[in-house]
Amino acid sequence: MQSDSDVRSQRIAAKAAAARLAQASWAMCSAAQRDLLLRNLAGRLRLSSDFVLQANAQDVQVALAEGYDAAFVDRLRLSNATLQGVADDVERVAALPDPLAWESEVLRLPSGLHLRRKAVPLGVLGVIYESRPNVTMDVAAAALKAGNAVVLRGGREARLSNLALMSVIQDALQDAGIAPALVSYIDEPERDAVLDLLRLQGLIDVVIPRGGKGLVDLCRQHARMPLIAGGAGVVHLYVDRQVDVERAVAVIRNAKAQRPSACNALDTLLVNAEVATVLLPALVPFLIEASVQVHAADSAADHLRAAGIQVHTLQTTDLDQEWLALQMNIVVVADLETAIAHIARHGNGHSEAILTDDPVAAARFLHQVDAAAVYHNASPRFSDGGQFGMGVEVAVSTSRLHPRGPVGPAELISMKWIGTGDYLARP
After folding, report:
1. Residue 29: inside a domain, yes or no?
2. Dist. CA 353–CA 355, nearest whole Å
3. Is 304 helix (H, G, I), strand (E, B) or coil?
4. For FRET with 349, which of 5, 100, 212, 340 sits at 20 to 30 Å CA-CA?
């Protein structure tokens, strides 16, 4: 007799196998057919917003009852405005250029072989994510645009929201005469369901974990297929000695408080010692108004306390912390070189920024800092697929191989070589 875990594994494998069959047909559809489906999907989402919000309200109620913190609930909660924005994003994806249209120029070799490269779908994506239910729609839209199938596995905390969104997607697929298996959802609460998915080499082509460090590490350890993955977004912003203090404070406010639960929100502010006596007091009104908990030591703590703000003593582990909340580290550094060295030691390649009016310092920072996205006089909060013109974001990849940075439809492709000859044999 089969165990419950064996039966679960078979159910998951069957969904992946069905997705692979559906993807083979979907990849043959034209760009116009793919875009029409996406526009219809956006329309269905708008009409179904009440249905989705009712499901989300139940998820939020359970999360509050179970004592999840405010940052988690913020990531979980949907609103009518949020859903309308998601629908707008799906339409933006439909309006993007076709990721599969690209072909290289033909290379004519002395052997008589003509070679070219062509964009093709990645195939079947396995996407594992946690509390953000909007990811269900974002990932589906990006995958479909690029001719892929996708098998989704969301967190249990957003289960009802995800199932409601999946209902909208499945209805849109059926209306278009497309196999619903093209976008599948693993409704299995056990943690081992993730491991089942990660073992499906040959059925799942690429796994994309979207969540915290624990989830990413689990996938890296157990996946039998390639990953598109990021790490914790420990984000730094360095304020150089030549800077417009008033405008710098506005960018810092945006980087920390615009959405503190996002992976591209500011975690550690590095301040050049020559500007610290002016910048740090100028920051205090914002820190108090936004109720930001500050972790600082030495001269940074002295400047802030003198300006009338409570400061938590900075611990060594704080410098490697992705806060995802209204908390931040503030560190005074001697110079640009010290700031770059600090980022190299404590950053993880997500998003880093410099505020300076010195073009030489900016150029050095942008060249030397190793991250998926680096910014000069701009907030790191721009590290987002929507802000990069991708319509939606599947993940922010911190790996060194393609893709790196925000991942949208254009990144969910591979390439193949096409060789043409005249009954050509290799000499």
Report:
1. yes
2. 7
3. helix
4. 100
